[in-house]
Amino acid sequence: MKLILLGTGGYHPNDRRHTPALLLPECGVMLDAGTGVFRAGGYLERPRLDVFLTHAHLDHVVGLTYLFNVIRVHPLEEIVVHARPDKLAAVDEHLFSEALFPKKPPIELRPLAEEVRVPGGGRVVHFDLDHPGGSIGYRLEWPGRSMAYVTDTTARPEADYVAHIRGVDLLVHECYFPDDKADWAATTGHSCVTPTAQVARAAAAKRLVLVHHNPLSTDSDPIGVETARAVFPETVLGEDLMELEF
Q1: Is 51 helix (H, G, I), strand (E, B) or coil?
Q2: Residue 219: which pLDDT band, with cuts at 50, 70 and 90?
Q3: 56 backbone φψ class: left, alpha, beta (φ>0; ψ -120 to 50)
Q4: Is the pTM of this model over 0.85?
Q5: Phi-psi group of 121: left, alpha or beta (phi > 0 → left; psi -120 to 50 → alpha; rest → beta)
Q6: Number of Cβ within a 10 Å radius of residue 102
Q7: Which of 98, 104, 177, 214 is deepest in the core (most CB within 10 A)?
Q8: Can you tell me the distance from the alpha carbon of 79 to that of 108, in angstroms, rounded to the nearest whole number?
């Protein structure tokens, strides 16, 4: 299974990174819909797209307004956006308000089920995360492979969500700050390096990919990835358009 990182930054895009969007082109699944969404048309392989939102903060949903151009590049027969009802209501009322973006793309806003079946014999389940305004993470499983996506939360190896990601082949986890900004991580509901690596170790994940980086840093390594590798050696710094097999 291939995962493409369409956007690996947080809050706003910079010259190096767009905001969160992860694409599994073989099964037509997208995780979050940030500014990286505009790239999806060149990778999609199916006539249906299922978008799973973690929450409705703007950096994770604004790309829904880009779907007109995605379907010009890759025509889609159906687009379903899955999220908790309050988040869908926020998207519908505010993002697609007449004053802000009056023409809604051809999407169905569907309240998130406890389990969603996806092509290839896969399933998507979700779990709660601690973040201002609320957020959720996702675990995706197919026969013989699995991944989890955790963003917009403060990493702690003792957090409840660790049980839901245990043993995954690939863990994609936010890492907004280096360790010297741990106070900012706690204040804003985001993660820094060492606790994120400790989460991967506690969950016995096979690989860790760090995403959702602070856009104020345009360095090639905005968070100090070697610090993470000292705790969890199988750590990769996510980059836009990186392709990962799991």
Answers
A1: strand
A2: confident
A3: alpha
A4: yes
A5: left
A6: 8
A7: 177
A8: 6
